[in-house]
Specification:
Penicillin binding protein transpeptidase fold; Immunoglobulin-like; 3 domains; five-stranded antiparallel β-sheet; five-stranded mixed β-sheet; elongated; Lysozyme-like_dom_sf
Amino acid sequence: MTGVEPRAPTPGARPRRPWRWLVLGGAGLLVVGAIAAALTFARFVEAMGPLDLVALEQRSTVVLDRDGRLLRPFTTAAGRWRLPVTAAEVDPRYLAMLEAFEDGRFRAHPGVDPLALLRAAGQWLSHGHVVSGASTLTMQVARLLEPREDRTLGAKLRQMVRAVELERRLSKTEILSAYLTLAPYGGNIEGVRAASFVYFGKEPRRLSVAEAALLVALPQSPETRRPDRGPRLARAARDRVLARAVRAGVLGEAEAAAARLEPVPRARRPLPMLAPHLSEQALAADPTSRVIRLTLDGRLQASLEALLSERVAAAGPLLSGAIVVIDNATGEVRAHVGSPDYFAAERAGAVDAARALRSPGSALKPFIYALAFENGIAHPETMMDDRPSRYGGYVPENFDMAFQGTVTARKALQQSLNLPAVELLSELGPPRLLARLRGSGAAVAVPKDSAPGLAIGLGGVGIRLVDLARLYVAFTRGGSVPPLRWRADRVAEPGTERRLCDPVSAWYVADILRGAPPPLNAAPGRIAYKTGTSYGYRDAWAAGFDRRHTIAVWVGRPDNGAVPGLVGRLVAAPVLFDAFSRIGSDPEPIPAPKGALIATNANLPPPLRSLRKDESKSAGASLVGPLRIAFPPDGARVDLGASRPGRDVAALALKATGGLPPLIWLVNGVPVGGPQPRRRSEWMPDGAGFARVSVMDARGLTDSVSVRID
């Protein structure tokens, strides 16, 4: 037998194992593949760029009231309603149902839920199609931040990467708040807060169980499930959310059953539209702010908007109106109704009537009386003549074309008699009244190319309702006119008050107007108020106040057309008194200041008992010279030691020239001693501050100056 004999194995040699090389080669390929995949993934992530959260800042601008209630939102630049909201501002049951339905492990996973991925993959392999997704709430936020139409594996991978990045950048609560802000709810509605207002007319913190379940269901298919277009699909989706919530232990079966009985809304509601004019003005002045907080009281604003709409509609067609409410202590505007209906084109509803120049009629008379009281020309109990008078070519008449004869200044103002007011203004001089109103911050317009005449006292000027209301506040603050505050999120500038009159004169006017006869719908003596009716029945005004609030009302046609029967007392005054009743507190009178002279006509100093005609005063003045205060000069600052503790306070010397003795000196409306046969006297101040010094001679001629005592 021939052949090759098998070689005996060499002692100590290893046997060959070819599979070992296969294993090593496969492992090497896996390592290389893993490295290549890692590098590819790294390049994929790098190509994505940094996480961009700018979309979270692209929200609707919202205007809030002083307590944070929504007055009016504005759409984003893209025309979407996306109201800012946080998880803390949403009903907790909504949040519980949302997590149970969308992402049960939201609080545990790092942005991507591996268990959900495995479940979804297994269902896909076993059924051959997608049964349930693996998208987490964080991944949905990532998709909303970077929306893409494609549903490829690359898009899903991108969402996962962004979800992990979000979890590193934001807390779970911040991620949840981002979802609540960006989630779609059909049409141009984004975010749960906008959806809650559109479908239920309420803030999301006040949702019912059924409402919360519907809002959980809508973002999955916002267009097909919109309740205003597909109520059956919306109800079915809501009920599935309720069923899932029961299985998750979020709701009890009885609670869910009761929620299923609630109907779904079938129409969209308008978003809040309170204070539209003031909101637009605030946004125009501060276009970069996303949250603007005003001083308004949202509940009072809504109530007064409804009141004005109702009353103006009943008063006649084409009429508009406005209401302004001011907090006297702070100067903050509590309500600003610019028109009865912002969208009523026939009433020019988009025009803010509270800022339009209109003729105030008799609403300016209280300021004439205040200056007359301050200058010592009259006292509330001074007797005046309400008889026909002529002032050059000007012949004023009363509204009712009748005359009362001799009346007190109090009755003349309460009954809004024209002749006594014009007589006082002739003593003061129209330029002085105009200068005082403008110096107090009111934008008063006079006819062009004409000097201010006596007619300005009866409404021959233009003034805005907001300015008139601000001037009336002075009667509650001792003659001081505050700056109006509209923004609750900004500090008022100090030292910006203006002086309209002295405290005693302001209180005299307030005391008189509190006794004005009220309209038929109100009780007497509750508030101080004055009405006004412009020439030709074009404007009806009413302004009133108590210790806490001042309210001004205007009614008229925006095109300045005449309206027969449009009288302030009949149209505007009832609105004023109803507005006060809606504030919710009982009116309080203005307390009398120190130095107020409360007396009958018989107890007044003789020159204050009656107001004499100009002719007799001019004749007397021509013989003895005009009455003038020689010392102190107007605007002087006199150091009497009143501002330094421990130092004796000196008396202020008072000197006059001209006039017919005896003279009566008054400081802040209070007589200094009795009638003086000489033209000098003195006054002992009770402290530092401003003082109004007046002098009156035997014929009623007066002069006044303002000084500061240090």
